[in-house]
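A.,

Following up on our hallway conversation. Structure tokens first:
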């Protein structure tokens, strides 16, 4: 059996750890069943945002009338938009493969691995042993057992990327960030989109007023049904019919479309890895339990990224990889801190959020809440941005920023100032001390913080 100082399972954020291990001179093995580079590169952030960029431009043109511009789109080349995205992914994959080939001290096992014991992994019929093991095995689409679904066939965020022709109509089951991002894209392409969400609102972890604003905006371009639980999927002609139970009335409704896309959440890959063959514990959802140092319940086995199910975003996964590598290779005790971990949703309108929502903050803090609309600042008014808004949640006594939430243009860019402030323990007054360019959308941030009041 080959012995390694370090084994890394997963080439998403796991590549960061493998690189670090090689740089430290450790005998290192990287195991990945492919596609190389993990979810973000192949079926997550990168392809979805490559598709959403042209979708954003389309909606801007469609909405240009509010600025006094009459414009018509003469052609949307779905095939080439998809082909550009796939080409870019192929190129990135081959850069990663090249990098792996050149890393002479890295043994790459291209295959599906599983634990056979605490520190042993079988891959491609060979057993390997590692002194330190990093589980960075990610997650995959969760598909609930809906009657008839398997027989009919369905798309996921992964298979939708292989489409060559635009579906005329699409039913999306789920209303989280993947559902609304794909919904935005396909609707912009001209597909008739229907979103069916079981919960009472879209993007459940967000502030309710942001969910509501998103629903209102998206409803202009697609059909949105919340409180709608899909109970059965059937073939209907060349397409599908989805039977839905209305949660409030209990009545059944039927929706028809050319295809159905499942976007109800993500499930852990720990089952494939047979983590049960080790002392590594999982939580009730199947994600790997870790402490603040990203250690699992088994000494010298770490779990990072989506594998631990904490905050399933690439920037968080990458940060966890850096921390876990430091803790493992330098005997450090660096704790991960999610309190200023932001995320974005690239729907139209865009959403960005960091820290606690008002509801969560109230559980442990006395708070003040501030709100402002984009149209409250000069640039927002110039853009005729009448809907977008931002909301701050601040600790009453200290005015420490606990959370910040934005819906509207450039939200993911605007929030960074707040993230930076929160990372250094920022208070609302500190943001106001910095000069903000006038007129710029960044004026929204101090404006919100100047509007703090008892909720
Ligand atoms: C549609 C979509 C859009 C997203 N958009 C964003 C976004 O805009 N911004 C953002 O921050 N995040 C986004 N995410 C989330 C982001 O993609 C993930 O949080 C991130 O990729 C997780 O990285 P990871 O390294 O933990 O896991 P992954 O990147 O999933 O890597 C896991 C790797 O492990 C391999 N593997 C798993 N099991 C085994 C096994 N048994 N043997 C061998 N190899 C195995 C897999 O093949 C994979 O390569 C998106 C996700 C989706 C699905």
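Then the amino acids I'd put at each of the 455 positions:
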């Amino acid at each position: 059996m080959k012995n390694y100082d370090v084994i890394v399972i997963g080439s998403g954020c796991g590549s960061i750890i493998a690189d670090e291990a090689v740089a430290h001179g450790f005998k290192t093995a990287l195991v990945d069943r492919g596609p190389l580079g993990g979810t973000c590169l192949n079926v997550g952030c990168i392809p979805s945002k490559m598709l959403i960029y042209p979708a954003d431009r389309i909606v801007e043109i469609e909405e240009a009338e509010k600025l006094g511009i009459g414009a018509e789109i003469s052609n949307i080349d779905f095939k080439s938009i998809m082909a550009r995205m796939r080409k870019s992914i192929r190129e990135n994959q081959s850069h990663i493969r090249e990098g792996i080939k050149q890393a002479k001290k890295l043994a790459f096992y291209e295959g599906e691995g599983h634990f056979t014991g605490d520190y042993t992994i079988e891959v491609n019929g060979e057993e390997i042993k590692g002194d330190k093991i990093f589980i960075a095995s990610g997650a995959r689409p969760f598909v609930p057992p809906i009657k008839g679904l398997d027989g009919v066939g369905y798309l996921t965020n992964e298979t939708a990327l292989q489409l060559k022709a635009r579906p005329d109509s699409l039913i999306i089951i789920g209303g989280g960030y993947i559902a609304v991002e794909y919904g935005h894209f396909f609707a912009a392409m001209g597909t008739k989109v229907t979103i069916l969400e079981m919960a009472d609102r879209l993007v459940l972890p967000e502030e309710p007023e942001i969910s509501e604003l998103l629903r209102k905006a998206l409803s202009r371009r697609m059909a949105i049904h919340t409180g709608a639980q899909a109970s059965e999927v059937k073939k209907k002609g060349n397409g599908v019919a989805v039977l839905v139970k209305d949660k409030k009335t209990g009545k059944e409704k039927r929706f028809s479309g050319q295809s159905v896309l499942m976007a109800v959440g993500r499930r852990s890959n720990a089952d494939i890895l047979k983590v049960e063959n080790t002392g590594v514990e999982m939580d009730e959802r199947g994600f790997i339990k870790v402490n603040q140092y990203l250690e699992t319940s088994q000494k010298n086995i770490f779990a990072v990224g989506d594998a631990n199910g904490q905050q399933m975003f690439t920037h968080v996964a990458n940060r966890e990889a850096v921390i876990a590598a430091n803790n493992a290779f330098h005997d450090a005790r660096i704790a991960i801190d999610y309190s200023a971990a932001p995320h974005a949703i690239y729907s139209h309108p865009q959403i960005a959020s960091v820290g606690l929502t008002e509801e969560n903050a109230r559980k442990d803090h006395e708070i003040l809440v501030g709100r402002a609309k984009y149209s409250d600042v000069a640039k927002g008014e110039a853009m005729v941005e009448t809907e977008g808004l931002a909301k701050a949640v601040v600790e009453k006594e200290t005015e420490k920023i606990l959370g910040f939430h934005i819906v509207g243009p450039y939200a993911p860019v605007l929030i960074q100032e707040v993230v930076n402030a929160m990372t250094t323990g920022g208070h609302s007054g500190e943001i106001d001390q910095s000069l903000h360019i006038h007129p710029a959308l960044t004026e929204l941030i101090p404006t919100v913080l100047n509007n703090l009041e008892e909720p």
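The chain has 14 helices and 21 strands. Curious whether your intuition agrees with the design.

B.
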